[in-house]
Amino acid sequence: MSEDFTGYVGMFDSGLGGISVLKECVRLLPHENFLFFGDSANAPYGEKTRDWVLARSRQILQGFLARGCKAVVIACNTATSASAATLRLEYPDLPIIGVEPALKPAALAHEHDRVLVMATPMTVSLDKYQHLMSEWGDRVEVVTVPCTGLAARIEKGNLEGEDLHELVLSLVGDYRGKVDSCVLGCTHYPFIKPQISRVIGDDVPFFDGGAGTARQLKRLLEAGGLLNGSCDAGSVVFRSSIDTPEELALYQSFFERQI
Fold first, then answer.
1. Catalytic residue numbers?
2. In angstroms, rounded to a whole number, what is the distance separating the alpha carbons of residues 180 and 21?
3. In the predicted model, is pLDDT for residue 31 greater than 70?
4. According to the model, what pLDDT value does residue 4 have?
């Protein structure tokens, strides 16, 4: 990318899953301009090493800064866990907002005593999730499921495919009728809420971190005097490490999809 994105909010994910967070941010901050980068050529992050994810996240953030972005949203649970704390130390003057599994709101919903957490293997293995568990896991019974392969399958599109249903069934089918709520600990997963509901039950409510991330972005932009003062609707620009018209069209279709 050689374009000047001065004044934009840069947002990235391992692929297109972070578009679920982007939708929340656009809803809350309709006058802001967003540059979304999906690293689909390297997806999923959740099955790579922490050091690799940190190095790649740093590289993407530096690219945003070189193009004038005013804030960065890490729209990926895995990348947040692996890199957010380090990048905030390295760039103390840059608002850096992450996303995390919504275990806190699920735990505070007192009617939900047994919480299913679906996340990538790396997300559940790193310190951030373990801290969430130690802080909120004593309020509810938490069932953690590392969903190997699920984000990668969602990247392919065709969300009504029978193979996707079979994958979800193999991962969480045993919990039908046995959990009271479900935390979607990967930003890809909100796009398949109907598919998950068909497996674990239509009456199981979902929790994810997208709305909380959007609220934190707004708070930090306000605190830094960085809000866009225009009354015009903001713009959204998509870029991907798979730089093809077909891939960008897939991103746009996910952005237009109801969640």
1. 76, 186
2. 24
3. yes
4. 79
